[in-house]
Structures are given as C-alpha cells and as structure tokens.
Amino acid sequence: MSHRPERIAEAIKKETADILSNDIKDPRVGFVTVTGVEVTRDLSYAKVFVSVMGSEERRKETLNVLQKCAGYLRSEIGRRIKIRHAPEIIFKLDTSLDHGTRIMEILQQINRQENTSHE
Fold first, then answer.
1. Is residue 119 assigned to a domain?
2. Domain count, the chain
3. What is the DSSP pairing of strand 45-52 with strand 88-93?
4. Distance CA 65, CA 29 (A)
5. % of the chain surpassing 90 pLDDT
6. Is residue 109 in a domain?
7. Strand 88-93, strand 32-39: pairing
8. Which range marks the domain in which residue 43 is found?
9. d(CA 36, CA 9)
C-alpha cells in the first residue's frame, strides 16, 4: 500500500496555505485556514478543507472565490510540488472549529449555572 496520496495531500495543504496567504490578493478571501486535504487514490481530485472566519454569507462568498481560483491553484501546486498531473481542487468548508466553539460555549454556560446554584 502506497503512502503517496498522504504525502501529496500534505504537500498540497502546505502549498495551498502558502498560495492563499501570499498570492491571492482578492479582498473577498478573508481569514482562511487550510485545515486538511484528502486526495483520491488515483490523485485526480483533492478536497481542500478550509475554515473561514466571519458570517455565513462571508463564508459562502469566500468559498465561491476560492473555487474560482482553483484552476490557478492547481497549476501553481503542480509546478511547486513537481507532479505531472496536479489533482483537480475542490474546496469544502470545515465547520469542526464551529462545533468546538459551540461546545465550549455550552460548557461555560453550564459552569456558570452550576456556580450560581451553589451560591
């Protein structure tokens, strides 16, 4: 079993983050964090998971802009990591950070309620 898809995914994650922070100057691309990359076994597709700060509307707009940049990113990634056929890039919104934040808020709320009931 080859580890090549995992190595390619990690390289794509690193390069995508670098390109987004240094090369993409579109103001609609706000604070974006690349949280993970999944590459198909045949290396034809790469799902790039991103976390975007801001409102739901802002997130959708950022995702649309990123999808429009996908062709540029694909060619740039292919050049940087020197692979013959760079995978087609599909951006997906990673909402796991939202879930973590919501859980923390709930735990803090429970903690406050317990503290006030003990007083």
1. no
2. 1
3. parallel
4. 7
5. 44
6. no
7. unpaired
8. 4-94
9. 8
User: What local confidence, expressed as pLDDT, does residue 16 receive?
Assistant: 94
Specify if 117 maps to a domain: no
Per-residue pLDDT for 72 more than 90?
yes
Record the tokens describing residue 60, joined without a space: 């959708």
User: Which has the closest alpha carbon to 50: 89, 21, 93?
Assistant: 93
Look at phi and psi of residue 109 and say left if phi exceeds 0, alpha if psi is from -120 to 50, else beta. Answer: alpha
Question: In this predicted model, what pLDDT tens digit does every residue of 33-69 receive, in sequence order?
Answer: 899 999 999 999 999 999 888 888 888 899 999 999 9
DSSP-assigned letters across all residues of the chain: ---HHHHHHHHHHHHHHHHHHHT---TT--SEEEEEEEE-TTSSEEEEEEEE-S-HHHHHHHHHHHHHHHHHHHHHHHHHHT-SSPPEEEEEE--HHHHHHHHHHHHHHHHHHHHHH--
Tokens representing residue 58 in the block: 């802002």
Residue 10 lies in a domain: yes
We report the CATH number of the domain holding residue 55 as 3.30.300.20
C-alpha 83/C-alpha 5 separation (Å) is 12
